[in-house]
Amino acid sequence: MKNENIPADVKSKSLKEARDEINGILTKLESKEVDLAGSLDDYKRLIQLNRHIDLLFKKKVKEISSITKKNNKK
C-alpha cells in the first residue's frame, strides 16, 4: 500500500491517535458480535493505520540518522 492510498483522515493522525484507533478496532474485532462486512472494513482501516504508523516510524528513523551523522562529523 503506497502512501497515496492512505486517506487524509488517517494521515493527519498522530502516533497516539492511530494507536488508540487500532486498539478500538482490535477490541471490536475480538468481540463475539461481529458481522463479516463490518469486519472487512475494519480490517482495511487497520491496514491503513498500520501503514501510516510504519511511515511515521521510518520518518523518525531518518531524522535520528541525520542528526546522528551530523553529530558524528563534529
What is the strand and helix layout of this fold?
Blueprint: H1 8-11, H2 15-30, H3 36-73
What does this structure look like?
This protein is mostly helical. It has one domain. Helices cover 78% and strands 0% of the residues. Helix 2 (15-30) packs antiparallel against helix 3.
In short:
78% of the residues lie in helices and 0% in strands. The chain has 74 residues and is an all-alpha fold.
The percent range for helix content is over 70%
Mean pLDDT: 88
> Number of DSSP strands?
0
- The portion of residues forming beta strands comes to under 5%
Integer count of domains:
1
| Total DSSP helices | 3
Name the descriptors.
mainly alpha; 74 residues; 3 helices
